[in-house]
Design a protein that fits this description.
about 230 residues, alpha/beta, Rossmann fold
């Protein structure tokens, strides 16, 4: 059993796409630990394997070889319904594109994970409103995505990712579509409301302006981890 001071433990992760002459090595022997109570930033050039790595950690891809343990569970050995259920309960996702449903209000969008989990609609929306308030959108809970700025839409997406209280939050380029000020606001919010003693936060970013928000900076190059800076 993996000690729970590690939210994520990757050992010798390799990921290949394609075969033969078209084979691409996206990850090459990656070892990584991610700890709760910290924000870990994954940085590096496009195509270096960052998104592949977080996709494996989040249970969206299987590694070709190696081990990935998340919150004590060996994800590379989980299949089908068990993996989907684990992901829905324990992992939250924030993407570069907000992926909000245009016909739903901010509160309804934020409530989606709870509705999928079977919560009664009224209870789910009420919980979503409280989380929206925590990200500064108490006065926009009934607004539709088209009525929100990009920064506000990303805050709705953060609320949606946190509404079910996951123990791992995975963010793929959350500031890429935002101007500098909105990006800073989003990262400040992630530090304030997402980083908790029992939750690990992983952020993939190309934005050097947000590096100051990370507890650990993991630099990747050509499918490998080049260096890790910050506290363990």
């Amino acid at each position: 059993m993996v000690a729970m001071e590690q939210s994520v433990l990757c050992r010798d992760l390799n990921k290949e796409f394609g075969s033969g002459d078209m084979r691409t090595l996206a990850l090459r022997g990656v070892d990584l630990e991610v700890h709760p109570g910290q924000m870990t930033l994954l940085v590096g050039p496009s195509g270096c394997g960052k998104t592949t790595l977080i996709s494996i950690i989040a249970g969206l891809l299987y590694p070709t070889s190696g081990e990935v343990t998340v919150l004590g569970q060996p994800l590379n050995r989980m299949r089908n319904g068990n993996l989907i259920a684990f992901r829905g309960k324990e992992i939250g996702f924030v993407f570069q594109q907000y992926n909000l449903l245009p016909a739903l209000t901010a509160a309804e969008n934020a409530a989606v994970p709870l509705l999928i989990a079977g919560w009664p609609r009224a209870k789910a929306v009420e919980k979503a409103k409280s989380v929206l308030a925590s990200v500064g959108l108490a006065n926009r809970v009934n607004s539709f995505p088209r009525q929100l700025s990009g920064g506000q839409e990303q805050r709705v997406a953060i609320a949606r990712a946190l509404v079910h209280e996951p123990r791992l939050l995975v963010c793929d380029e959350p500031t890429a579509a935002l101007d500098a000020q909105s990006g800073q606001t989003v990262m400040e919010l992630l530090r304030k409301v997402a980083v908790q003693p029992d939750r690990a936060v992983i952020v993939v970013t190309h934005d050097n302006r947000v590096l100051k928000f990370g507890d650990r900076i993991v630099t990747m190059s050509d499918g490998r981890i080049e260096r890790i800076e910050g506290r363990t």
